[in-house]
Design goal:
The chain has 7 helices and 16 strands. It is of the alpha/beta class. It folds into 2 domains: 122 residues, 3-Layer(aba) Sandwich (Rossmann fold), CATH 3.40.50; 103 residues, OB fold (Dihydrolipoamide Acetyltransferase, E2P), CATH 2.40.50.40. The chain has a 5-stranded parallel β-sheet with strand order 2-1-3-4-5, with helices on both faces. Helix 2 packs parallel to helix 3. The longest helix is centred in the middle third of the chain and has 18 residues. The radius of gyration is 20 Å and the shape is elongated. It starts with 6 loop residues before the first strand and ends with a helix. GO terms for molecular function: DNA binding. It holds the Pfam family Response_reg. Keywords: Phosphoprotein.
């Protein structure tokens, strides 16, 4: 087993779905400790080895559904749980909310959405348990971002844009994305204005990565970023337009 990998238990009674989840996460560097079809099996696995997060389908085989299993997990351990479901029923959602899950993802979803949901769930759990140490250190040419138990150095030139997500922000590079426990307003104050610019209430961009502007959108790689009305004039002044 590779040290430092996020350890995941999957509770999913559909074998094909479970296998696809496992393959997707292993390809992205996660360690899959096991796949359980039922809540009873999941609880046994959870008691055997420390787990970083449980991916929990709400509909399971066995006597308990995923919500009942999560309630037991929350009462006995401090393990974060990310719900997966194709059920959009409001009553199911309300039942799930009572267990204080760390995340909730509606099927269908792609690999990137799954990874983002897992990382946000882990980060939310990290904050809720009181481990709210500084997770970002900014210098003149780079910043350090906390990833698990270490700080990773990111050069400013590698940062493409930062997107607001609830009370968190997601920093995007070509290779990866990073969850930060800062609002965009705080990051705007921390990052050098010579390189980064707020272009929307939900986005800060690295102006060096802007490839095109069409109508009210900025193109950075394969991402179209909206330009807010209050930011458009400053953006146009900032860019060298012939």
């Amino acid at each position: 087993m590779s040290e430092g990998k996020t350890k995941v238990l999957i509770a999913e009674d559909d074998f094909v779905v479970a296998k696809n989840l496992s393959i997707t996460l292993e390809e992205r560097g996660y360690e899959i400790l096991g796949i359980s079809e039922s809540g009873e099996e999941l609880l046994q696995s959870l008691s055997k080895e420390p787990t970083d997060i449980v991916i929990m389908d709400i509909n399971l085989a066995g006597l308990m559904d995923g919500i009942e299993v999560t309630s037991l997990i929350k009462n006995k351990t401090n393990t974060p749980v990310l719900y997966l479901t194709s059920d959009r029923d409001q009553k199911t959602l309300e039942r799930a909310k009572l267990t204080n899950p760390d995340g909730y993802l509606i099927k269908p979803f792609d690999g990137d959405e799954l990874v983002s949901a897992i990382e946000i769930a882990l980060h939310r759990h990290h904050l809720s348990t009181g481990n709210q140490k500084e997770d970002t250190v900014v210098s003149e040419s780079h910043l350090f971002v906390k990833v698990k138990n270490r700080l990773e150095k990111l050069q400013f030139e590698d940062v493409r844009y930062i997107e607001a997500n609830d009370i968190y922000s997601i920093l995007m590079t070509k290779q990866s994305n990073y969850i930060l426990s800062y609002s965009l307003k705080t990051l705007e104050e921390k990052l050098p204005g010579s390189r980064f610019m707020r272009v929307h209430r939900s986005y800060i961009v690295n102006v060096e990565h802007i490839q095109a502007i069409e109508d009210n959108y900025i193109q950075i790689a394969d991402k179209s970023i909206p330009i807010g009305k209050t930011y458009r004039e400053d953006l146009m002044k900032r860019l060298s337009i012939i």
